[in-house]
Amino acid sequence: HLYPPSFQGSSLLRRSNCRAKGGAPGFKVAILGAAGGIGQPLSLLMKMNPLVSVLHLYDVVNSPGVTADVSHMDTGAVVRGFLGAKQLENALTGMDLVIIPAGIPRKPGMTRDDLFKINAGIVQSLCEGIAKCCPGAIVNLISNPVNSTVPIAAEVFKKAGTYDPKRLLGVTTLDVVRANTFVAEVLGIDPREVDVPVVGGHSGVTILPLLSQVKPACSFTSEEIDYLTNRVQNGGTEVVEAKAGAGSATLSMAFAAAKFADACLRGLRGDAGIVECSFVASQVTELPFFATKVRLGRSGAEEIFPLGPLTEYERASLAKAKQELAGSIEKGVSFVCK
Ligand code: NAI
Q1: Helix boundaries (H) for 93-234
Q2: Best mutation site among 60, 168, 173 for ligand 1, i.e. most ligand atoms within 8 A of its Cβ?
């Protein structure tokens, strides 16, 4: 026990703090819910990201172990761990990007909406911390139901007077990742070559893969369209059932969250042409929030792209999606405004 794991990142025998202060330029990133099924592999992936200089891992349980473990990786980011509500403010102070995978996941038979009761309160309290300690940070919200938790976060930030819609992004990347994979399987090509826009929201019929806009340009039979749309919409349930009570997607979700966070960081750095789908405040439809392609820049979601031309099938699916989304958004808003 001569060299105890450095929970606050201050090993006994470190000669100076110069790496944290004057090391490679990079961004400060916090993960809230870092000890969870998503949080752990996401912590690993963010520690590997060369754009990250400081990585704060916060949870209400087990963050010391995850921090000690990840901090031994010989990559650039300095890792610090934070445990419990009393340490939330320290975890958040100075952060450029906050990623939130905190909250309970689905079990077989549950919808994402069934998670609302518990996760709504968790997201509310974490966002109150963000408003207080790092109001200028970009927020990547993963906790479900995303269709309601993003409106909750917006209301918390409005109340605190810190709301900037460009900086609040619901993470729907897993739907895109799944759509790219399933479309590539059907076409018999490499998924890395495929780009499927997925719009709407992040739950059941609100997940709308726009198969008419797939790149590279291709066409599908109506049977393929039905199969692909259903598989993308139910991809999460496929994993929940296969895990049989042991949780929902964690590894593919961590991959998707890391991909999205990296895009946000490249945008913050000023890279041009960074475009991802995300559930954001939007005027693309009459709903106050909607997922579409957005361009990420120094201030977050700087441009929101329109839906583009839709087929009749997609227009019908959009109508269904909007109906469900409207209720989920309202539920989130009234949770905070009650
Ligand atoms: P998990 O239960 O394995 O981990 C959640 C972690 O959050 C736990 O370590 C728990 O201690 C922590 N936590 C609970 N309350 C907290 C609080 N107040 N502050 C900080 N941490 C807190 O769950 P898992 O599988 O990691 O899923 C997390 C969330 O992500 C769930 O809500 C799930 O539905 C959602 N999810 C979202 C997806 C998306 O595409 N946006 C995809 C898959 C899951």
Answers
A1: 116-133, 146-160, 173-187, 222-233
A2: 60
